[in-house]
Amino acid sequence: MNAGSSSVKFSLIGPADETVAERELQAPDADMDPAELRDALAGGLARADAVGHRIVHGGERFREALLIDSGVADQLLQIAQLAPLHQRKSLAALRAVDDALPDVPAVACFDTAFHATLAPAARTYALPAAWRRRWHLRRYGFHGLSHAWVARRVPELLAERDAAGLKIVSCHLGAGASLCAIEGGRSVDTTMGFTPLEGLVMATRSGTVDPGMLLWLLEHEGMTELEMASALEHESGLLGLAGSPDMRLILSRADAGVDDAGLALEVYLHRLRGAIASMAAALGGLDALAFTGGVGEHAAAVRARAADGLAFLGVAIDPDANETAQEDMEIGATGARVKVLVVRAREDLEIARQARRVLAAGR
Fold first, then answer.
1. Percent of the chain at pLDDT above 70?
2. Which CATH number among 3.40.50.300, 3.30.420.40, 3.10.180.10, 3.30.365.10 corresponds to the domain 2-110?
3. Which terminus, N or C, of the chain has the lesser number of Cβ atoms within 10 Å?
């Protein structure tokens, strides 16, 4: 179960990770029509032995997947303020499916949990200690289910490499975007922080901006917190730079010489290349660079132009392989020190893996 901003996706995953059935329901705010939900489940999904739910935020309490009971659900509601745009939608989907399948165990799989391994230096903000203790202000990171899948899939694709020592930068590039530095299958650093606003330029989110500028706007321009939150979340990023959140349209307009689209693309790539280099520095080297997510999987021009600025790290792309790339394949130039891959985003398989592990452990 993956509750998004306007829809809820279902996948029924078989014992060999095959997709048995899948559906997507339109569900603004995860408010699903009960009859439509029943119809979706009747289409084969009701055969599930368990339901794995993507939960965006686990706070400091939930560092791994676990069975959901009333106590866990209450605690998830208590930390909903940490991710108000996402958490309540996930919980609404949880309640709806629980009503439809009351006897099927439900497992919470957290987007933040993969980053529970961040060292203090990577997760700590340089803020007053009293603030950090009182409000649990720290870098949590997100897209953990996607990055966890990359951490598992890349060693499989690079069978000749030592998985335990493999240093990977995972680039989840979609409407939301984040990077993760992975060593030995564990998150070492990531670009998103206390909220999913930190880090890269995204479709409608600003990514990292100077907090002093935001304070200036609040003080001198009379902007309200609600106005600022709406602008940073929904009116910034590629949309704010070029009037569209769609990378396909940005690339087309940039190729046609449209100035604002060209600037948007350059800003996006500038931040992306810099962040990849930062993740490589956190790892102390780089063995593999993996692109995933809607943009990462389908925008060959973004991959190529990002790699063009990373030759100093040993990154080079084969142009033909890049242009014709399918899911789960290498696109790096022959002889390049760093392997470059396109990896299909499979959060559903990662959720299934975590749900199986929880059920097997009985926790």
1. 97
2. 3.30.420.40
3. C
Closest listed residue to residue 250, CA positions, set 338, 361, 175:
175
As a residue count, the chain comes to 363
Which CATH code for domain 152-347?
3.30.420.40
- Equal CATH topology for 2-110 and 152-347: yes
pLDDT surpasses 90 at 45: no
Residue 10: which residues within 8 A CB-CB, separation 6 or more?
Answer: 1, 21, 22, 23, 24, 25, 40, 45
CA angle 163, 166, 172 (to 5 degrees): 105
Choice between 22 and 144, residue whose per-residue pLDDT is larger: 144
Q: Which residues of 261-279 are buried (b: 16+ CB within 10 A; e: fewer)?
A: bbebbebbbebbbebbbeb
What's the token pair of residue 126? 């340089």
How many Cβ atoms are within 10 Å of 220's Cβ, its own excluded?
8
Smallest CA-to-CA distance from 53 within 102, 94, 23 is with 94
**How far, in Å, CA of 145 to CA of 351, rounded?**
7
pLDDT at 211 over 60: yes
- Kindly list the catalytic residues: 111
Strands 288-292 and 167-173: parallel
**Type of residue numbered 246:** D
8 A C-beta contact, residue 77 and residue 91: yes
User: Pairing mode, if any, of strands 288-292 and 339-342?
Assistant: parallel
221: Cα separation from own chain's centroid? 33
Please say if the pLDDT value at position 163 is more than 90: no
Q: Is the pLDDT of residue 113 over 60?
A: yes
- The DSSP line for 104-153 is S-EEEEETTGGGGG--HHHH--SS-HHHHHHHT-S-----HHHHHHHHHH
The whole-chain average pLDDT of the chain stands at 93
